[in-house]
Design brief:
By secondary structure, this protein is of the alpha+beta class. The protein is built from 3 helices and 4 strands, in the order αββαββα.
């Protein structure tokens, strides 16, 4: 059962440039988006990962990621297809929005 389908060329040309401007890049050699986030602490990092995990469960679309203390590298790819899907874009945007909450909180502390 296919859960997601590849974005068409028009959708890609609309959706990918803003993500790339926000720091996302394509993984070399495959259809996947990657970005690394750095947090102020281990706890913030873990809270962010938890929020992403909960949203991932809701959409049934899960990341590949690696975590090291205050950094997370997250990769979004669609395993149901060989190309990026709207789910990858949705989750990349979710990651950025969730990260902005921590950025704002840290700015308010400063």
């Amino acid at each position: 059962m296919v859960l997601a389908t590849a974005m068409d060329a028009a959708t890609r040309s609309t959706e990918l440039p803003p993500l790339q401007e926000a720091g996302w890049s394509m993984v070399e050699g495959r259809e996947a988006l990657v970005k690394t986030y750095k947090f102020a602490s281990f706890n913030e990092c873990w809270q962010w990962m938890s929020s992403v995990a909960l949203r991932s469960e809701q959409l049934n679309h899960h990341p590949e990621w690696s975590h090291n203390y205050d950094k997370v590298e997250v990769i979004w790819s669609t395993h149901d297809d060989t190309a990026l899907s709207s789910r990858d874009v949705t989750m990349a945007k979710w990651c950025d929005a969730a990260f902005k909450i921590f950025e704002k909180k840290n700015e308010e502390k400063a």
